Amino acid sequence: IPDDLVIVESDPEKIDTLAVK
């Protein structure tokens, strides 16, 4: 799970994707 958070920080656009999940 922590890996996903790191990716989000690198790609703010992916924050929406994770937020939806």
UniProtKB/TrEMBL annotation:
* Domain of life (superkingdom): Bacteria
Would you tell me the protein name for this molecule?
A: Phage tail protein
Tell me what organism the protein belongs to.
Answer: Salmonella paratyphi B (Salmonella enterica subsp. enterica serovar Paratyphi B)
